[in-house]
Amino acid sequence: MSERMHLNTEHFREDLFRVSSDGTVRLLASRCADCGQVYFPRTTICVACGGTELADTEIGPDAELFSYSRVHMPTLNFKPPYLAGLGLVEGLRVFAPVIDVNEPAVGMKLELKALALGDGSKLGYAFYPRRTV
Amino acid sequence: MREVAIIGIGQTRFGKMPERGFRELGQEAIRLALADAGIDPRKVQGGACSRLYIDIATGQALFSGTGIAGIEVTNVENACAGGSTAVRTVWKDIAHGEYDIGVAVGVESMTTSPIAGKMIPPASDDIEGQLGNAVPVTFALIARRLMEMRGATAEDFAQVSVKAHQAGALNPKAQYRKEVTIEEVLASRMIADPITLLQCCPNTDGAAALVMCSMDVARRFTANPIRVLSSSLVSGGFSVNQPDLISYQCGREAARRAYEGAGVDPADIGVVEVHDAFAPEEIVHYEDLGLCAPGECIEFLRSGATALGGRVPVNPSGGLLSLGHPLSASGVRNVCEIVQQLRGDAGPRQVEGAKLGLAQMLGGAVSGLEAGACCIHILAR
């Protein structure tokens, strides 16, 4: 994917995530004003405490690998083999493909970045190794 | 509430039978159950039918072909827990005195369904499905957590499939009646690491049915009714409240309600049937059902306790892995298996001396939830 592509490719779902100019992704989430629980995608009720005051927030791009699987069957937008994972983003388990990771390990540090899905006409997100600064 | 008994069971052979269609399969199961109970179809007062990929009002179509019409019929869908939910529907009606005699049936013709030859597709609004998730991947992610948190190995997962096929080889109704070795399971095609092909249940056609009635009516038909001690159905909990993937809130709560309702302890259960769509999943249910202490599921599996001949055999039928999984029929089928075991009619796969049995099904993927539902029945002879 070209460096600028993520700026004008349609997201696979509206109001789900925001791509920064450097390609990192922040997920559009909600945070409960009462107990602080975070939700993705956005929601209007806190199922942890019953609170109904939720503020818009963004989570990511930092994530930590929670579980993973090397997938050897084709799925909707992916050809095998590919790595699929659950990453913890502010404690929330988020599913996404894992790119550029050859030896996955639970706990490894990742970051969310944009990824073109399927034939490239839609933009999604994936976990990538976190860049060390 | 009245005590309810099961007095008749019926099951078709499971397998790929596109030529048979859902009517023929469902009606065969109902006829077998009625014959087993020795009951005239005109005596049936209520029924529930579980199906997913079939026409509207499936239950009416099945019942009418077996001589039953003009009664209360409910069609249910609850993903893989649909069959159990049909059983529970009839149990509730009889327990609460709506009627005395009812039939629960579950049927699926996967080979003639819109998803024949395909994977069960993600729900249309499913975000994860767009990003590469699929049912086997979901269970592979659970398997990885079992490796991380419980020290499970690829061989442990393969052992669940070996165990299922040992039992299934003894079941004339099973789709796959062939034993497999750990090496064969591990060498089969990789689907979603660590899950290989022989750790996935196949898509299958089949039906199962059972006849239930109030205990006072049961005595008129048989000297040995199988008592339904309890029935529980709990919908999936919120994912944010599920600390890890190796335990289901709905699985633990359905178990708690079932044991409490039956007034029995997990240690009293002698035979168990669970949803084993993918081999690693069965291991999760050991702890949620309290069959072993928390944290000890892998040791429990390795001890052989859950194999035929063990302390509490799990899936002596062969499970979904060996029998095949006609989605909405399996939940009725696994209650029928417990009935057979408690009657002492299970032939070479008989669990000796079983007095109490438990049938569990977990079903469905719902965005934001850990699962769709968990349904449990505890039976006694």
CATH class bucket of chain A:
Mainly Beta
Oligomer: heterodimer
Strand neighbour order, sheet with most strands of chain A: 1-10-9-6-7-8
The number of distinct helices of chain B, counting runs of at least 4 residues, comes to: 13
The residue-averaged pLDDT of chain A reads: 93
Query: What fraction strand of chain A?
Result: over 45%
Q: Give the total of beta strands of chain A.
A: 10
Total number of helices of chain A: 1
Counting structural domains of chain B, the number is 2
Over the alpha carbons, how many angstroms does the gyration radius of chain B reach?
19 Å
Q: Which consecutive residue ranges of chain A, at least 5 long each, have pLDDT under 50? A: none
Largest sheet of chain B: 9 strands, mixed
Name the shape of chain B in a single word: globular
Q: Give the low-pLDDT segments of chain B.
A: none
Q: What does this 3D model show about the protein?
A:
Chain A has 133 residues and is mainly beta. Chain A has a single domain, classed as OB fold (Dihydrolipoamide Acetyltransferase, E2P), CATH 2.40.50. Chain A contains 1 helix and 10 strands, in the order αββββββββββ. In chain A, the strands form 2 sheets. A 6-stranded mixed β-sheet of chain A has the order 1-10-9-6-7-8, with no helix packed on it. In chain A, strands 2, 3, 4 and 5 form a 4-stranded antiparallel β-sheet that branches. Chain A is globular. The model of chain A has no long low-confidence stretch (mean pLDDT 93). Chain B is of the alpha/beta class. Chain B has 2 domains: 132 residues, 3-Layer(aba) Sandwich (Peroxisomal Thiolase, Chain A, domain 1); 228 residues, 3-Layer(aba) Sandwich (Peroxisomal Thiolase, Chain A, domain 1). Chain B contains 13 helices and 11 strands. A 9-stranded mixed β-sheet of chain B has the order 3-2-4-7-1-8-11-10-9, with helices on both faces. Chain B is globular, with a radius of gyration of 19 Å. Chain B starts with a strand and ends with a strand. The model of chain B has no long low-confidence stretch (mean pLDDT 96). The chains are: A mainly beta (133), B alpha/beta (381). Chains A and B meet through strand 6, strand 7, strand 8 and strand 10 of A and helix 4, helix 5 and strand 5 of B.
